[in-house]
Amino acid sequence: MTPTLTDEQFEQYQSDGYVVVEDALSASTVETVTERLREYTHGDREPADAGFQRQLEPAVERGDLEVEEEGDAVRKFEGLGMVESDDVFRAVADDETLVSTAEQLLGPNLKLLRSAAMFKPPQVGSEKGFHQDAAYYPIQPMDHVTVWIALDEATPENGCMTVVPGAHRDGILGHEAVEYDTDIVISETEYDEGDLESVPMEPGDALFSHCLLPHYTSPNETDRWRRALIVAYMSSRSRFTQDDDERPDWVDSVHITGEEFPGCV
Predict the structure, then answer these.
(1) How far does Cα 98 stand from its chain's mean position?
(2) Residues 208-224: pLDDT tens digits?
(3) Span 165-211, pLDDT tens digits
(4) DSSP 60
(5) Cβ neighbours around 223 below 10 Å, total
């Protein structure tokens, strides 16, 4: 595959822990993905039938906030079933630009660790506190790459990604659960406002971030949707650090490209 990152972009990823590839997905692909997601939120497709989970906004589930349709309260879809059962999402995971970039960062042998969709419905989408993606996944080494793909314009007002450049070099930090077991955030941090960097993006742009990069997203305070698709790649030489019966349900892998290795993921 043709390399997608320039030397400067590769250096930025190594030093800052993230890099944005503009127009990684075409406008037509973004439209196709957005339409498919809406079929699951407002149509007749059921996430459970496709083997992945749906999560609603906690405030709506508690009854603190009302919406006209349940689909207007979806917080996220999560699960490798998205790519295992739906050809639209699988095509994104196999996209040449995304895979080529991941190969530059991780090498030629790749597996998919995560597939998800993140929603921030207008005036409903809540914040996601500071966290590191590595805290969710018992794998070594901690170098997998999360790809956050904007499906709408992402701005500070509607909850674009905010990162701490270079903080991936601080290692894994302590996390604690907030609303529920899988809503974990960094418990203590010395980062202040001057350390933060907002990352506005256009539809089709892809943010590649190191799994140790601290990041968060603010609430959506606008009248516009802010939707994003996530795929996370790891080297096929990675190892799960927990036995099968101890690993969380969401920790698994799907082969993407290259070789597979005995004893590895």
Answers:
(1) 13
(2) 999 999 999 999 999 99
(3) 999 999 888 777 676 556 677 776 778 888 999 999 999 999 999 99
(4) H
(5) 8
The C-alpha atoms of residue 171 and residue 132 are separated, in whole angstroms, by 10
CB-count exposure of residue 195 (10 Å: 0-12, 13-18, 19+)? middle
The H or E element spanning position 127 is none
Q: Rg of the chain over CA atoms, in angstroms?
A: 17
Per-residue pLDDT tens for 136-149? Answer: 899 999 999 999 99
The DSSP result for 165-196, as a single string, is TTGGGG----EEESSSTT-EEES-----GGG-
The strand pairing partners of 206, in sequence order, are 21, 149
Alpha-carbon separation of residue 145 from 20, 216, 237 (angstroms) = 12, 16, 14
Name the residue type at position 239. R
C-alpha torsion angle, residues 74, 76, 80, 81 (rounded to 10): 0
Measured CA to CA, the distance from residue 241 to residue 52 in angstroms comes to 23
> Phi and psi dihedrals of 157, rounded to 5?
-75, -30
Peptide bond into 214 cis (omega under 30): no
Phi then psi for 206, rounded to 5 degrees?
A: -125, 125
- Reduced to 3 states (helix: H, G, I; strand: E, B; else coil), residue 125 is coil
Distances (CA, A) of 185 to 17, 38, 133, 190, 217: 19, 28, 10, 14, 12
Name the DSSP letter for residue 162: E
Cα angle 168, 172, 177; round to 5: 120
Q: Which of 131-135, 141-145, 243-247 has the highest mean pLDDT?
A: 141-145
Rounded to 10°, the helix 96-106/7-16 angle is 60
Residue 31: the pLDDT is 98
